[in-house]
Amino acid sequence: MPVIFRRSDQEPAPSAPGVERAGLLTPGTIGNDQITLDRVRLAPGAAYTIELSPSAVGWVQVLSGAGVLAGRDTDVDLVSYLPLGFAGAFTAGPEETELLVASVPDAARFDPDIGNMPGELRQVDWTREPVLESEHDARKRVYMATPALAGTHAFKGEMISYPPGASAPEHHHVGAEHFQYVMSGRGTALLDGTGHVLEAGDVLYNYEHEPHAFINQSDEDFVFVEFFVPGPCETIWSPGANVCAWLPTGVDSAGRQPAREIGYHVHGQDDGL
């Protein structure tokens, strides 16, 4: 059964001077070591050290504020991909900063070619990625991590926006587990037919073969990021559901010409992106 972690129930603990860390996804909370996910809050100027095991890869997403990660400026527009065994510090800027820090232990389980992932820290401005729109409803998608962006099949991620009234067809995944982290708004996750309201800061973890869908019954956009481990997986649609296909809009998140082009494709058939 999927697991929901409410922000109101997540107790951060001091990790370093000016730093609090809440372990969201751990072997103890999800029952396996597929992925770890921490939310880290830093006071202005505070530093947080990230140290992956030699066989792990990961990524960092800034939720609020800004800072410097291993000598490189980082803010809410960037996703940083951490190579094998990454070790470095994130130092917050002049305001309080919040991060999501994820790692995939023993990444070779999910990507036998993990050694070919670039060995340096890489960053992508997700706001320059093309916005895609759903073929059958009003949802929008922006990719946060793909093989072309991150250089690995160990994980894959995207940001999904549900305008008021939007919904997605029920489906499940084979070959990967994944989570949703709610960025803003309020929406309802339909988990095996039962509704569960999710709000900003909540995390939903889905195992393989778990039927799920989402609907936004509020009057504001419901936005979440979701990441799959491993990236490749098969999506199975429930009987009668429209297959979820994505169309290019020709613009990025700010209405500009996007940094690259992505054509029409079906969810789960996106390995070449």
Q: How do the strands line up in the largest sheet?
A: 1-20-17-22-15-14-13-24-25
User: What is the number of independent domains?
Assistant: 2
CATH architecture assignment of the largest domain: Sandwich
Mean pLDDT over all positions: 95
CATH superfamily (homologous) name of the largest domain: Jelly Rolls
- Return the CATH class of the largest domain: Mainly Beta
Q: Sketch the topology as an H/E string, one letter per element.
A: EEEHEEEEEEEEEEEHEEEEEEEEEEE
Q: Briefly, what is this?
A:
The chain has helices at 27-30, 147-150, and strands spanning 3-5, 13-16, 19-25, 36-42, 47-51, 57-64, 66-69, 72-75, 78-82, 87-92, 97-104, 122-125, 132-134, 140-145, 156-162, 171-174, 177-184, 186-191, 194-199, 203-206, 212-215, 222-229, 234-237, 245-248, 265-266. With 273 residues, the protein is an all-beta fold.
3D architecture notes:
It is a single chain. The protein has about 270 residues and is an all-beta fold. It has 2 domains: about 5-125, Jelly Rolls; about 125-265, Jelly Rolls, CATH 2.60.120. About 5% of the residues lie in helices and about 50% in strands. The chain contains 2 helices and 25 strands. The chain has a 9-stranded antiparallel β-sheet with strand order 1-20-17-22-15-14-13-24-25. It has a 7-stranded antiparallel β-sheet with strand order 2-3-4-11-6-9-12. The protein starts with a strand and ends in a 7-residue tail after the last strand. The mean pLDDT is about 95.
